[in-house]
Amino acid sequence: MIDLSIKRPVATAAIYVALVALGAYSFRLIPVELLPDVDYPRLTVNASWGGASPEAMEAFVTSPLEAAAQQVKGVRKITSTSRADPRGTGSSAEIDIEFERDVRMDFAQLDLGERFASLRDELPPAVYPQIQPYVPREFSDEEQRFLSYQLHGPYTFSRLAEVAEEEVEPVLSSVDGVAGVMIWGDQDREVAIELDRQKLDALNLRPEQVEQRIRDLSTLRAPGSLVLEGRQVTLAVRTRVRRVSELENLVIVQRREGAIRLRDIGTVREQTADATSYFRINGQPTISIFVTRESGTNAVRVADAVKEAIGPLEARMPPGATLELDDDQSQEIRQQLTDLRLRALAAAIVIFLVLTLFLRSMGAVLVVFATIGFSVLIAVNMLYLGGFSLNVLTLAGLAWGFGLIVDNGIVVLENVERHSHLGKPARQAASDGARQVMLPVIAATATTAIVLVPFLFLQGELRIYYLPLAFAVAFSIVASLFVAFTFVPTMAGRIHYWRARVYGVPAGTADQAAGAARETASAEASGVSAAPATARPRVPAYIRAYRSVLGFALDHPILVVAVCVAALGGSWWLFDKHVTRGIRWSAFWGQDTYISVNITFPRGAGLDRTDEMARAFEEKISSIPEVERYEAWVQPQYAFMRITFPKDLETTQVPVAIKEQMVAYSYQFSGADVRVYGYGPSFYGGGSSPPNYSLKILGYNYLQVQDLADDLASRLERFSRIQDVDPNASGRWYERDKEFEYYLAVDREALGAHDITVEELLRFVSANLPSDRPRTQVLRVGAEELPFAVKLGGYRDFDLIDMRQLRIPSQTGREVRLADVAQVERRNVLSRILREDQQYQRTVAWEFRGPRKLGDLIRDAVVEATTLPPGYKIEEDDRWGWDEEEKTQVYVAIIFAVLLIYMVTAALFESLAAPFVVLLTLPLALIGVFLIFFYADATFTRTAYIGTIMMAGIVVNNAILIVYHIGELRQSMPTRDAILQGTLERVRPILMTTFTTVFGLLPLVLFAQSQDENIWNSLALATIGGLISSTLFVLVAVPVAYRYLVARRA
Fold it and tell me: What is the pLDDT of residue 137?
């Protein structure tokens, strides 16, 4: 490959032109998104049951669905939660089903759906389980809120919803790349039929008769078939109405005295359904419009197309109404891309300056610099062909590999120049120089790429995050290897040829003086006499200094070992005591500053009561001039408000002060639980944030688990630094621990004595009660379907006393009081039933204000003082951390990475001892990793663990170059001389590659608001720290280790 590219420069140029064209074309076609489109081996099942308690939900819905899901092939783990609906309308179930990694999720979802369909008759009426692909927490926002708009103004919710449905939705749905448009906050239309009790009694009719006649209107009947033009066709009878007003003439029953129509016993009207929630911005009614995009489309281009379509719509809005962009995920992508471009440009400038400083030849600098562009374009080609997208993770991989791309080119070019200085012709120098370093460069690249192999075996969310990252890195460094042995030798030979033509000197003799200087430096370093040269320039100062240090180290190996051990131990102590570890990276943490106000009322509180308190807070917030925007979501029993500030105030103490005002204002209210939280940089130091500690208690008795949680919480509250202890953190912020329900205890014997069935009883009671459950009965009116409900007059004012006195008609014509056949009773129920591996679970969360290490000590002390019954356990529940399974996967990946590096280097050196010298660089590199995270005050996220694994494949490269070259020289000179000369001859390329890599990565971490801001910060920090410390120690420790571990053994 090397000789072919040198001999055929035109063909080589044609290949690179084609690669550039393909890369540019792939860059246009490759999807651009914030996070990758994932196929996670997990499904989520959701179901709701109006009017049911969590206990009933668990018994009649959750358990049967769990049993059916357990029969699907490949199921690994099932967890479920049955909880009361926050609106008080019933309960909901969420079942999380995790599969083995090799399961085809489309087939699994189909199998699960079929099993649920077979349960249709066993599940309660109106319970329809919905199967959805699982979306990890860090990805859910991007899936649901690609683009969102808010339509608000001085109009009713109904009017705003009408504008959104008729003006906005059709336009946005027609945009290419838009998967759907969802309108939230509108109030549905419904058909309300209210019957007169006295007229029903006089005519001996029951509400269920009316309800059945209305349902019959939507039924398609086929009474038979007839012969038409010699063919037999089926006759279909449709009885649907075209207008709601036609229902008034509906015949309910035919009597001897005439037909009894619906208008004779009640009223029919089409109305807006009662509001179940409100959403306001700055106090004005607001409708939310969410836009989702199709999978695999370019997020930026789809967003631009949507915004272009929105432009003309703004002029068609009613006077005073405003359609404004609320959330734009494409903006995050643009910011990330812009930030990465600027940092890449800065890195390119720095690399250019470093190369110019070392190479002192503009032609050589341009050759090495060109390898960056070629390698990146080839990597983009591979990403596109591999089905990957450009997202935060793949871009982070390309950015991380940016400083590594030039390394192979530098080593090849530097060695080609060294052979040229020996007097060889240009083509021979290019060929021999590239061939000599081909094996160690391939091995060095292999060690960098081989550590990525364990990533293929990661499971769960780790696989989603870091497999695309690993492929991006692998593609870039493999591309750089191809460029280094095709493009670089070709251009290096041409450079020396043209240099000879320009200076009129035969190729290969232009820099004899420089070559002699290098030979002299090597000879002086090794202590052997050099061949006379006509010019002996002064040896560079750094070479003379390093030669002295290296000679001293070879003579004092024990001191070298002591310094390395002390440095490793000291850096680990600082790291262990002061650096937070194991936190998840999330693309959506961001740096936004805002305050949230969470209001929770007791069960049964109506929407109006909750809205009244929410409006009081809104009025208070509106009087604060520093607040830029406030939003309010109101539902029965709970409300949520978000308060944001102008950009120039986000990082000041103003948000903290306003948060304290909100806390003080909440003390004026009673009967509701009000919690105020602060998010963002302003609250990191002295404000407030959501609970940052949590413990999970597991056991087989729910009440026992609850008692343990309450006891643990009471002991935590004794510490002054601990605040906001929540013994009920298993669920959402609006969920309570204690719930109750009213239920109808039916006396079946009494019902039978009066010839009344349970179904008849329930239908009659339901007709007398208001219902805030979703309407499950649908009437087809013209081309649309409208929900309908049949109620008795006065149902809105119907209370418990009225219900007990309710008189139920029987089949015998007699009326029976409800109190004679049933009793209304109250009982306590569980608000939430959470199970994991057949154990009940409860989480205790709290906020600790102080150093993380002190918080860990207090947590551990409280746990150790807790007496647990047999079979119960307490586990750390770090919601933003990683679990034990993920830790195990990463630790296994680290072990396998080290083993793979050993095998590659053992194959290169044909030695079992030499690889240990190379592996010595790994603990030495950790010194820099520990120190840089300590001094940068950065969190050692799980991305940093991954960065450390990838860093291990890089830092060994310098050791490979040294050990391989020493091994070559030992064949012709004494061991000590070979160590000195071999090391000194590799100092220059080692320093060049280190400087270019480090300075190429520095722009990725400089000028960031926080070292945890982006995913590439942790990657870059781990690589920079490890590379700097490994370079400093490798140049001393590796020669010493080689002498005493390899040379003496030989």
Answer: 52
